[in-house]
Design brief:
Layout (H helix, E strand, L loop, with lengths): L1 H16 L5 E6 L2 E7 L3 H13 L4 E8 L2 E6 L5 H10 L11
Antiparallel strand pairs: 1-2, 1-3, 3-4
Protein name: DUF3634 domain-containing protein
InterPro entries: DUF3634
Organism: Vibrio comitans NBRC 102076
Length: 99
């Protein structure tokens, strides 16, 4: 009986910690080498342009939480490129302050 409870707890723990991005893009030397998930065609085209202008290697994972996107980058992606890619996301809001 105890082993059934331990297996159930392990399954619940694995489901909670399982990494489920909406889309994952892998960049190699300024090109999009692979992508998985539901990638918007216009967003993919923008990513290819950005990668061509600012060559880099790394990964980008996009998570969807209720009404907004959360983006995680690998450490090899430069900060300037991260901001450009975040602003290219569909539904991204400008962070300009209104006065």
């Amino acid at each position: 009986m105890l082993y059934v409870i331990l297996i159930a707890a392990a399954l619940i723990f694995a489901i909670v910690l399982y990494d489920k991005p909406k889309m994952k893009l892998t960049f190699k030397e300024g090109e999009v080498s692979s992508h998985t998930g539901q990638v918007d065609k216009s967003f993919l085209h923008k990513c290819k342009d950005i990668a061509r202008k600012n060559p880099f290697s790394g990964t980008m994972k996009v998570y969807k939480s209720r009404e907004q996107f959360r983006v995680k980058f690998s450490k090899s992606v430069p900060n300037k490129t991260r901001h450009i890619l975040r602003s290219a996301l569909p539904g991204a809001k400008n962070h300009a302050h209104k006065r």
